[in-house]
Design a protein that fits this description.
Chain lengths: 145, 145
Amino acid sequence: MTAPAGCPLCEGPGGRLLVQGARWRLVHADEPGFPAFYRVVWQEHVREFSALAPADRAECLEVVVAVEQALLRHLRPAKVNLASLGNAVPHLHWHVIARFDWDSHFPGAVWAQPLRTADRERIAGLSALLPSLEADLVSRLQPPA
Amino acid sequence: MTAPAGCPLCEGPGGRLLVQGARWRLVHADEPGFPAFYRVVWQEHVREFSALAPADRAECLEVVVAVEQALLRHLRPAKVNLASLGNAVPHLHWHVIARFDWDSHFPGAVWAQPLRTADRERIAGLSALLPSLEADLVSRLQPPA
């Protein structure tokens, strides 16, 4: 599919780039209040997950799973949230988000109304764990040079 | 994993049951304002998608994909939303939701604040398409007797 003009995931990475694969990339989402929020973005402009060939779906989901497992290992979250929505930006991307019982929206979705103010100290503590999490992710997902 | 007491997806179907597989079930979610909202529920009480063995993950996702494709074929939605959140009910289930530019929350997530009042006429029109959609889904997903 040709990239439509103005698609932010065709024109930019969609976050801080961690791993650039041939068919997908992994970015840190930079969403305030949610330090452990990553996105797996399909490189080609595809609207729906089911439009991918079965082997591509499997490859995409195994990256999502690798990110989820890294979040669980490094951060011990209350829950990991996975979502492919794309209503505003219909270019296939998976949100992979570590959730904590103290975060501003838990147990609501990150797209819901906040339930409490963000806890800056805990957010800073979580942010401090990201370099080792990301080094682990890069070493596991980086394609061979 | 042993089913914890009080898990609503261990104790009930979690919606109107359409297909009962050995390892998953498909239910209609009965969420007001969103007639085309389905859930693929893993039968065993598992918290995170990545806790499934790779073959089980593939089986689960192929059901999700089959539902997405049926929604696209029968309803021509603006977008399909896929999500495995489970913050409130940490028993693995995938939401598969057909979204329309006229629905109460579009382009926001269904968990966000509504952006407009629900359009009863269009909701009724959509609901009228569900019997043939569901007959198609049942015929494709029903395990052999």
